[in-house]
From TrEMBL, chain A:
Transmembrane segments: 7-26, 46-75
Signal peptide region: none
Keyword Membrane appears in the UniProt entry: yes
Source taxon at top rank: Bacteria
InterPro entries (UniProt xref): PhaG_MnhG_YufB
Keywords, ordered alphabetically: Membrane, Transmembrane, Transmembrane helix
NCBIfam families membership: CPA3_mnhG_phaG, PRK12674.1-2
The name this protein goes by in its record: Na+/H+ antiporter subunit G
GO MF, one annotated term: sodium:proton antiporter activity
Source species of the chain: Candidatus Desantisbacteria bacterium CG1_02_38_46
From TrEMBL, chain B:
InterPro entries to which the protein is assigned, alphabetical: MrpF/PhaF-like (IPR007208)
GO molecular function: sodium:proton antiporter activity
Record family assignment: Belongs to the CPA3 antiporters (TC 2.A.63) subunit F family.
Bilayer-crossing regions: 30-48, 55-77
Main location (coarse class): membrane
Species name: Candidatus Desantisbacteria bacterium CG1_02_38_46
Protein name: Cation:proton antiporter
Coiled coil: none
From TrEMBL, chain C:
PANTHER family in alphabetical order: NA(+)/H(+) ANTIPORTER SUBUNIT E1 (PTHR34584), NA(+)_H(+) ANTIPORTER SUBUNIT E1 (PTHR34584:SF1)
Membrane topology reported for the UniProt record: Multi-pass membrane protein
Organism of origin: Candidatus Desantisbacteria bacterium CG1_02_38_46
Protein name, UniProt field: Na+/H+ antiporter subunit E
Domain of life: Bacteria
Entry's transmembrane regions: 30-47, 59-78
Location in or out of the cell: Cell membrane
GO molecular function: monoatomic cation transmembrane transporter activity
Recorded GO CC terms: plasma membrane
Location, primary (coarse class): membrane
Keywords: Cell membrane, Membrane, Transmembrane, Transmembrane helix
Family of the protein in this entry: Belongs to the CPA3 antiporters (TC 2.A.63) subunit E family.
Length: 109, 84, 164
C-alpha cells in the first residue's frame, strides 16, 4: 500500500512540475491554459490518490481525498473554460503564428 | 517526501514568476487559478506528514473557493456584473 | 416537484455521511436535520427531470465512461509533456468550430469538460444551437464536419447514453 502511494505521489509531482514549466514557456494565454490545466489537474489527482493509499484506504482522510478529487474534476475544467472565454472577450489576441480564429470571425458578424 | 515538497515549492515559484511578468491580466488570472490547485496538493502532503486529517478539510474548502475565485476573475475580465 | 426534493435530500445525506465518516448517533442526527432543511428550501431548483435518477443503466454507462476518460486524460498529459519539453515547441494553435448533437444542459457541460481534459483541446464558448468553439493546440483541419469527427465523436457516443 505504502509503495503504491509513494509512486503515485512522485508521478503526480512530476506532472505538476511539467504544467508549471508549460505556464512559463508557452507563448500565449490559451496555450498556457491548455498545458497548465491538463497537467496540474492530473498531477493533483495522483497526489490525492497517493494520500488515499498511504492513509490506509477507507479512513476519514482517504474518503476526504476521494471527495476532493471529485470536486477538482468538476471545478478545474469549468474554471479554465470561463477564464478562456473571459480572456477572449476582454480582447486578448491569439499568438501571431496561429492558424485560424473562427470565434473572432463569428463575433464580429 | 521532503524533496517532493521542495519540487512543489519550485512549481509555486514558476507560477509566481508568471504572475509577476505576465503581459496581460488574463495571464495573471490563469497563474492564480493554477496556484490555487497546487495548494490543494500541498495540503495533501501536509496531512500525510503530520498524520492529521483536518488538513484535508482545508484542501476541500480551498478547491471550492479557488473555483469561485476563478469564476469571479473571469467575469471581471468579461466586464460584466457578477450575477449575469 | 416532491421527487426533486427527495433526490436532493438523499444526495446531501450521503455526502454528509462520507464527510464525517463516524457513525455515532449525534453526527447522523445533525446531518439528517440539516439535509432535510436544505432539501425543503432548495429542492425545487435542483433538477427538472427527477425521474432520470431511477434508471440503473445510466449509472452503468457512467462507470464504463470513467476508465475511457481517464485513458484519454493520461494520453493528453504525455502530449503536453512532448510539446513543452521539445526545444522547438511544435505547436500550431487556432480556434475551430465544432457541432454537437447533445440536447440536455448537463450533457453539454460534461462534453465541454471532457474536451478540456483531453489531448490538445480547450473549449472556449458554446452557443444555443449546439456549436462549440474549441482552441486546438495542433490544428489539423478547419472544416466543421471533420473537426467534429476528430474532437467530439469519441465522447458523444457515451454521453448520449448517460444523459439522454
Amino acid at each position: 500500500m505504502n509503495e503504491i502511494g509513494m509512486v503515485l505521489l512522485i508521478i503526480g509531482v512530476a506532472f505538476d512540475l511539467l504544467g508549471c514549466i508549460g505556464i512559463v514557456r508557452l507563448p500565449d494565454v490559451y496555450n498556457r491554459l491548455q498545458a497548465s490545466t491538463k497537467s496540474v489537474t492530473l498531477g493533483t489527482w495522483l497526489i490525492l490518490l497517493g494520500v488515499f493509499f498511504i492513509s490506509g484506504g477507507f479512513t476519514a482522510m482517504g474518503i476526504k481525498a476521494l471527495i476532493c478529487i471529485f470536486f477538482i474534476v468538476l471545478a478545474s475544467p469549468t474554471a479554465a473554460h470561463a477564464l478562456a472565454r473571459g480572456a477572449h472577450i476582454s480582447g486578448v489576441k491569439l499568438w501571431e503564428k496561429s492558424v485560424c480564429d473562427k470565434y473572432e470571425e463569428d463575433k464580429s458578424k | 517526501m521532503t524533496y517532493l515538497l521542495i519540487i512543489l515549492g519550485i512549481c509555486c515559484f514558476l507560477c509566481l514568476y508568471r504572475i509577476a511578468r505576465g503581459p496581460t491580466a488574463a495571464d495573471r488570472a490563469v497563474a492564480t487559478d493554477i496556484l490555487g490547485i497546487l495548494v490543494v496538493g500541498f495540503c495533501g502532503f501536509f496531512s500525510l506528514k503530520a498524520k492529521q486529517d483536518w488538513y484535508m478539510n482545508i484542501a476541500l474548502i480551498w478547491a471550492l473557493l479557488g473555483f469561485i475565485g476563478a469564476i469571479t476573475l473571469a467575469k471581471y475580465l468579461e466586464g460584466k456584473h457578477f450575477d449575469e | 416537484m416532491k421527487m426533486s426534493k427527495f433526490v436532493l435530500f438523499v444526495i446531501l445525506f450521503l455526502l454528509w455521511l462520507l464527510l464525517t465518516w463516524t457513525f455515532n448517533y449525534q453526527d447522523v442526527t445533525i446531518g439528517l436535520i440539516l439535509s432535510l432543511f436544505i432539501a425543503i428550501l432548495m429542492g425545487d431548483i435542483f433538477t427538472e427531470h427527477p425521474g432520470k435518477f431511477k434508471d440503473i443503466k445510466r449509472y452503468l454507462w457512467m462507470i464504463a465512461y470513467i476508465p475511457y476518460f481517464f485513458w484519454y486524460c493520461i494520453l493528453a498529459n504525455f502530449d503536453v509533456a512532448y510539446r513543452v519539453l521539445h526545444p522547438k515547441m511544435p505547436i500550431k494553435p487556432g480556434i475551430v468550430k465544432v457541432k454537437t448533437n447533445l440536447k440536455s444542459d448537463a450533457g453539454r457541460t460534461f462534453l465541454a469538460n471532457s474536451i478540456t481534459l483531453t489531448p490538445g483541446t480547450l473549449s472556449v464558448d458554446i452557443t444555443d444551437e449546439g456549436y462549440l468553439y474549441v482552441h486546438w493546440i495542433n490544428v489539423k483541419t478547419i472544416d466543421i464536419e471533420e473537426a467534429s469527427k476528430e474532437i467530439v465523436a469519441k465522447f458523444e457516443y457515451f454521453l448520449k447514453h448517460i444523459y439522454e
